[in-house]
Design a protein that fits this description.
Structural class: alpha+beta
Order of helices and strands: HEHHHEEEEEHHHEEEE
Distance between the termini: 56 Å
Number of strands: 10
Strand order of the largest sheet: 1-3-4-5-2-7-10-9-8-6
Shape: globular
Largest sheet: 10 strands, antiparallel
Helix content: 10-25%
Number of helices: 7
Strand content: 25-35%
Number of domains: 2
Length: 299
């Protein structure tokens, strides 16, 4: 079997040096669509380094900055075809707000390999650690590898956080640019699936698709702006399942439910121009303090 579970999960963590500055942060936020309209003070907090309240940093920037991505396939015991791999889910725990510039390092390891029958799910965990040797955030990404299941292993937790059976507290429509995937690639994810039409067609798509982390970043930003007063430091964590593709130029529709019991917000995202095709599902954003979870006033 190409995946040696014992070998993969017992291997020591890999250390990766990480640096970023405010230019990287501003470019990342612009790639999510921040800065529109450019006179909005809340939008300027994402893209203007001299903003009176300082340049804030959305927590998913830490995933991009660490740039460990599919590093899982470089770990001992994981010998699979990258073409059969799919980024199935992402989870981030924020230990403290990210600075606008830092020298840090990431410690990355494989924590679990689950048997889903037709596929294996490899869980990669990476902790981003600051210059003071204290953690900034921990990310866990789930990589589905088709054809690698059926080895008799644990199926793993369901990880489901379904939307409540009621109308959402807000429906947030975010437009995207036709060239948005090309912009987001400048944050460090060079997968040609998001740029090369021939590669996209070979993968079964009519044209290049947007990065899953970009769509999730847009949804997180929309919730921060609507529910958390545009304060990225109020986010304590977030997670999602990537339920389907999203095409640059489409509208991303995010339905949001306030959930005080979970100290946060449940959400799902669809592409309304394709009959509400699912994009993100079983998603949850948690707040640092319970008083930030009340639904906003209706416009």
């Amino acid at each position: 079997m190409p995946i040696d579970v014992a070998k993969a999960t017992s291997a020591p963590p890999v250390r990766t040096e990480v640096t970023w500055d405010d230019r990287d942060v501003r470019l990342y936020h612009l790639a999510l669509g921040a800065g529109a309209p450019p006179t909005d003070p809340t939008e300027l907090r994402y893209v203007y380094e001299r903003h009176p309240r300082g340049l804030q940093v959305l927590p998913l920037f830490g995933v991009t900055a660490a740039n460990v991505g599919f590093q899982v396939f470089e770990h001992p015991g994981v010998d699979v075809d990258l073409a059969r791999a799919l980024h199935g889910g992402q989870e981030v725990t924020v230990h403290r707000p990210l600075p606008a510039a830092a020298r840090a390092y990431a410690l990355t390891r494989v924590t679990d390999v689950y048997d889903k029958g037709a596929a294996a799910v490899v869980v990669q965990e990476s902790t981003l650690v600051g210059e003071d040797d204290e953690p900034l955030l921990t990310q866990r990404n789930q990589i589905f590898v088709h054809g690698e299941g059926g080895f008799g292993g644990d199926r793993g937790p369901s990880g489901r956080t379904p939307a409540p059976d009621r109308a959402p507290d807000a429906v947030l429509d975010v437009p995207t640019l036709p060239q948005q995937a090309l912009l987001y690639r400048l944050s460090g994810d060079w997968n040609p699936l998001h740029a090369d039409p021939a590669v996209a067609r070979a993968a079964g798509h009519d044209r290049p698709v947007l990065h899953g982390l970009c769509t999730f970043g847009m949804a997180v930003k929309a919730v921060v702006d609507r529910f958390l007063d545009g304060d990225a430091s109020a986010v304590g964590g977030c997670r999602t399942r990537f339920a389907g593709i999203f095409l640059p130029g489409e509208i991303l529709r995010t339905e949001v439910w306030s959930d005080p019991a979970a100290n946060g917000f449940r959400l799902r995202a669809t592409a309304p121009e394709r009959d509400d095709a699912p994009v993100l599902d079983h998603a949850l954003i948690t707040a640092r303090t319970p008083d930030r979870t009340a639904p906003p006033a209706r416009p």
